[in-house]
Specification:
Blueprint lengths: L1 E2 L6 E6 L5 E6 L13 E6 L3 H12 L3 E6 L2 H11 L5 E5 L7 H14 L7 E6 L10 E4 L4 H12 L2
Parallel strand pairs: 4-5, 4-6, 6-7, 7-8
Antiparallel strand pairs: 1-2, 2-3
Helix pairs in contact: 2-3
Length: about 160
């Protein structure tokens, strides 16, 4: 999966030998690196790569492209450069060193400072029922296809 940036450099998600997602800098943009404006794209932030892969698979059922980041710094950098293309951001609540709620507090000002007209929906993902403040939706892990279907449907009607 690849994302286009407004500047001349780009990030592209690649797969390493053990299916570990990472980003690499592209020297020049190609047609396959461009997304159509109407496409829905999600950023998944989770320290567990298995959770990222599972959520990516489920989102693909809804024709939602996704990019995974397994640490908050990578996610913050990616969001700064690509937030204008994103429709959804899924944030794990329990990551080493930072919670999804704390990361959300760093992401929202980026949207407020930019002139981005696209609505970005923030979804909290955790193993408990507690709804975290500031999120548009909440998913309980393990994430099930039916739960995502309901959340996506609810967010589209807002």
């Amino acid at each position: 999966v690849s994302e286009r940036k407004e500047s001349e450099n780009m990030f592209k998600l690649t797969t390493q030998p053990e299916d570990k997602p990472s980003f690499r800098l592209l020297e020049k943009e190609t047609d396959e690196d461009k997304f159509v404006e109407e496409e829905r794209i999600a950023l998944i932030v989770d320290d567990d790569e298995f959770n990222i892969l599972c959520l990516k698979k489920i989102l693909s059922e809804f024709k939602i492209k996704s990019v995974g980041a397994n640490n908050p710094n990578e996610a913050l950098h990616y969001f700064k450069e690509n937030h204008h293309h994103l429709s959804y951001v899924f944030l794990d609540q329990h990551m080493p060193g930072i919670t999804g709620s704390e990361l959300l507090l760093q992401l929202k000002p980026i949207l407020e400072e930019s002139e981005c007209l696209r609505k970005v929906n923030f979804i909290s993902c955790s193993g408990d029922i507690v709804k975290h403040e500031g999120f548009d939706a909440h998913l309980i892990k393990p994430v099930l296809l039916e739960n995502i279907k309901q959340v996506i449907s609810n967010l589209q009607t807002l």
